[in-house]
Amino acid sequence: MQKNKNILQLLRKVFGLLQKKQKWGFVLVLLILAVSAVLNQFTPLAIGQLTDHILDQPGFSFGSILPFLLFILVVNVGNQLIQIVRRLIVEDTATRAEKTAREKAVHSLLSAPLSYFRQNMTGNIHGRLNRSLDGITKLVKLVFMDFAPSIATSIAAIVVIFSQLPTIIALLIVLVIPVGGLIVLRQISTQKGIRVQLLQTKSNMDGTMVELLNGIETIRVYDSVDFECQRFSSQSERLRAREMKHHRAMALYDGLKFLNEAVFHVLVIGASVLLASQGVISVGTILTAYLCFTQLTGPLRELHRILDELAENTVLANEYFRLVEIPQDFSYLPVSESTQVPSCNAIEIQGLSFSYPENPDRIILNDLSLSIRPGEFVGIAGPSGCGKSSLIKVLTKLEQASGSLTVGGKPLSDFTRSQLADLISIVPQSPFLISDTIYHNICYGCKRQVTLEEVIYAARQAHIHEDIEKLPGGYSFKVSEAGGNLSGGQRQRIAIARIFLQNPQILILDEATSALDNTSEKYIQAEIEKMQRQNGTTILSIAHRLTTLQNCDRILVFDQGQIVRQGKYQQLIDQPGIFQDMYKGILK
Ligand SMILES: Nc1ncnc2c1ncn2[C@@H]1O[C@H](COP(=O)(O)OP(=O)(O)OP(=O)(O)O)[C@@H](O)[C@H]1O
Fold first, then answer.
1. Where do the DSSP E strands lie in 355-502?
2. What does the pLDDT average to over 434-460?
3. pTM for the complete prediction?
4. Do 379 and 356 form a contact (C-beta atoms < 8 A)?
5. Residue nearest (by alpha carbon) to ligand 1 atom 31
6. Average pLDDT over residues 72-83
7. How far is the CA of 542 from the centre of ligand 1 (A)?
């Protein structure tokens, strides 16, 4: 009962992916089906009539059967034309449903909490998404294109069977349905678990595959191709063994279904011949009974296949809705306060504590308090793993911390994602480049229209213009995935060029110049300081290369999630402590 309810709920959700026009299309398809199902039944009736009333007539001429043959031809051609129209409607519905489903899934994934991506491998998510989308499309097609016609044709066949044949033969014919149904139900229930396992194993392999492709250079340098192939091969073997187990079971059930049909086939022929020999039915009725049986077993076989595929695609569709129903990240939840963005860019932090949701016992930021003036240039230093990047994640609302954090007097929790994007720009440790032109990479995230001149100006400020000019196509040069055809320093400078275009009120630099040579770093540093002076930009800069922080108004020294010291660059170097140790290279 619960199972049926779940399937109905699932089908309702799939139906929800269709637009109004497609729902009407569904009604049209049902009408077409009803017509088609009736037309399908004319052939056995016509053949029975032909045998009993035409062939028996004295002085039979071939001309007298021509109208019958023409009728059968018209009925069959008409039926095929109807099928083509139905197919086009169904394909249109399925492709539209897939488009809607894909868009919803992409939106859901891009708004999911970051912890979801730490718990699920990229390839795994991608593999599951693609397979489950296939499942949704197939489910739509099965329900629209296959399921209803088979049901309609089976019902029409049953009506004809009971109206045209003696009850005993009719009952014998339709008994093939419940027996076959029981076999299919057993097949579905025993195979569900293994289907879920197969899906998981395939997704895990997708995850491993993408992980390997991302590490291709390391794999080559470490010469670990054989090792990785072996690792992959054992996963593949487990998958193969599971698939074979599934196929063996499926073959067994197919055999049982075939046996069921074969037994009833023989029973129907035997019983009708017996009745004809006793004069209860005519010879033509034997033929009609035989054709009615095949008329029923055709769609019935289809129904068995459909029910099985329905079960398989239900597993995929459930997976799809799990992806679509991932709760939104906290930062997309509606904000409670006014939508006004403050004009001031001061940052106030009081009693801020933070742990990653996967590991709540490990405190990363510990009761942090801090005031940053508007337009202040603050450096952040500290040993690796002390929580510098985590603080930036909290500030950019990527992670949620307890305590108070306000920007321009307004709590961070009251900022929408869009407002924050207008306010804060970040150059992260590993810049995100899209596989598009240099021009589009520099414009990335900019909501206003940007001219090529502006992009060139920003690129000059980021000391990358000359490099771009040397690339084939210049600003039209196509960046490959993750910026694979650019150097680390070029990738960083493209990300830096973005901030000059965006001119943010708050700028966060997380190891933004770590891959740059000294000349480029100094040049960019000067441009950033110019921007700060002109626009009053508040800047937070994390750097391991301490000289990067030389011109900061203040440097905060972090250790184990707390600020242990703060001051100017020279002051901190002169004082014994973490900063001095880092300066001397004692501490990393
Ligand atoms: N998702 C996570 N779950 C649990 N702990 C995490 C997670 N991500 C990072 N950490 C831990 O949080 C701590 C702080 O990490 P963070 O990246 O903020 O350090 P950092 O000071 O920026 O280091 P680095 O200078 O090396 O970049 C580290 O010890 C790290 O192991």
1. 365-372, 377-381, 402-407, 410-411, 424-427
2. 93
3. 0.81
4. no
5. 385
6. 83
7. 14
Question: How far does the centroid of ligand 1 lie from the alpha carbon of residue 356, in Å?
Answer: 9
Instruction: Give the integer Cα–Cα distance in Å for 474 and 467.
Output: 9
Report H helices in 215-224: 216-221
The one-letter amino acid at 438? I
Q: Is 384 in the pocket of ligand 1 (CB under 6 A)?
A: yes
Ligand 1 center from residue 444 Cα (angstroms): 27
Rounded to whole angstroms, the Cα distance separating 474 from 457 reads 14
Residue whose C-alpha is closest to residue 444's, from 402, 479, 489: 479
The three state secondary structure string of 312-363 is: HHHHHHHHHHHHHCCCCCHHHCCCCCCCCCCCCCCEEEEEEEECCCCCCCCC
Among the atoms of ligand 1, which is closest to the Cα of residue 358? 3
Mutate to test the pocket of ligand 1, among 380, 390, 395 (most ligand atoms within 8 A of CB): 390
Chain-centroid distance of CA 46 in Å reads 51
The sheet with strand 410-411 has its strands ordered as: 365-372, 347-354, 402-407, 410-411
How many Å apart are CA 166 and CA 387, to the nearest integer?
84
d(CA 44, CA 288): 6
Three-state secondary structure readout of 500-525: HHHCCCEEEEECCCCCCCHHHHHHHH
Strand partners, 424: 506
Q: How far is CA 506 from CA 36, 236, 426, in A?
A: 67, 49, 9
Q: Which residue has the tokens 């202040």?
A: 376
**In angstroms, rounded to a whole number, what is the distance separating the alpha carbons of residues 482 and 303?**
48
Q: How far apart are CA 122 and CA 133, in angstroms?
A: 17
Q: What is the CA radius of gyration of the chain?
A: 35
Tokens 């397979």: give the residue: 131
Taking only the tens place, the pLDDT of each residue in 242-301 is 999 999 999 999 999 999 999 998 998 898 888 888 888 888 888 888 888 888 888 888
Residue 512 has which token pair? 């933004």
Q: What angle do CA 102, 106, 110 make, to 5 degrees?
A: 175
Other C-beta atoms closer than 10 Å to the C-beta of 248 total: 9
* pLDDT for position 436: 95
**How buried is 296 (Cβ within 10 angstroms: 0-12 exposed, 13-18 middle, 19+ buried)?**
buried
In the structure, what pLDDT confidence band is assigned to residue 338 with cuts at 50, 70 and 90?
Answer: low
Run of H or E residues at 565: strand 562-567
Q: Report how far residue 367's alpha carbon sits from residue 208's, in angstroms, rounded to the nearest whole number.
A: 39
Q: Which two tokens stand for residue 500?
A: 């000059």
Distance (Å, whole) CA 520 – CA 504: 22
DSSP string over 231-288: HHHHHHHHHHHHHHHHHHHHHHHHHHHHHHHHHHHHHHHHHHHHHHHTTSS-HHHHHH
Residue 284's pLDDT is what? Answer: 81
The atom of ligand 1 lying closest to the CA of 561 is: 14
What is the C-alpha to C-alpha distance for residues 131 and 188, in angstroms, rounded to an integer?
A: 19
Query: Domains (ranges, CATH) in the chain?
Result: 2-327 (1.20.1560.10), 347-584 (3.40.50.300)
Looking at this protein, which amino acid is placed at residue 587? Answer: L
pLDDT score for 33:
73
